[in-house]
């Protein structure tokens, strides 16, 4: 089974990681013009959120 994690970057997107490789960067600031993907807009929007990590068990 692959190891799947969601890692929230401090002040940035949710990274979906499979076996240690990032397969998607999902916007969580609400300012991306390419939702659901992060386009880097969090850097200029003043978005603040803590880092977090969730391991998906299968
Ligand atoms: S988290 Fe990067 S644009 Fe929203």
How would you characterize the overall build of this protein?
By secondary structure, the chain is mainly beta. It has one domain (about 5-55): Ribosomal Protein L9, domain 1, CATH 3.40.5.90. About 5% of the residues lie in helices and about 35% in strands. The protein has one helix and four strands; from the N terminus they run E-E-E-H-E. The chain has a four-stranded antiparallel beta sheet with strand order 3-2-1-4, with no helix packed on it. Bound molecules: FE2/S2 (inorganic) cluster. The site of FE2/S2 (inorganic) cluster has 12 residues, from loops.
The overall average pLDDT, rounded, is 95
CATH names the topology as Ribosomal Protein L9, domain 1
- Total number of beta strands: 4
Share in β-strands = 35-45%
The low-confidence parts are none
CATH class: Alpha Beta
How does CATH name the architecture? 3-Layer(aba) Sandwich
Q: Please report the number of helical segments.
A: 1
**What order do the SSEs take from the amino end to the carboxyl end, as H and E?**
EEEHE
The level of helicity is under 10%
- Overall structural class, as computed from helix and strand content, comes to mainly beta
CATH H-tier superfamily = CDGSH iron-sulfur domain, mitoNEET-type
Mind describing the biggest β-sheet? 4 strands, antiparallel
Bound molecules: FE2/S2 (inorganic) cluster
Q: What's the Cα radius of gyration?
A: 12 Å
């Amino acid at each position: 089974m692959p190891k799947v994690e969601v890692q929230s970057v401090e002040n940035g997107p949710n990274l979906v990681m499979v076996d240690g490789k990032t397969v998607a960067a999902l916007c969580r600031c609400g300012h991306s013009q390419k939702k659901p993907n992060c386009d880097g807009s969090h850097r200029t929007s003043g978005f603040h959120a803590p880092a977090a990590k969730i391991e998906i068990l299968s």
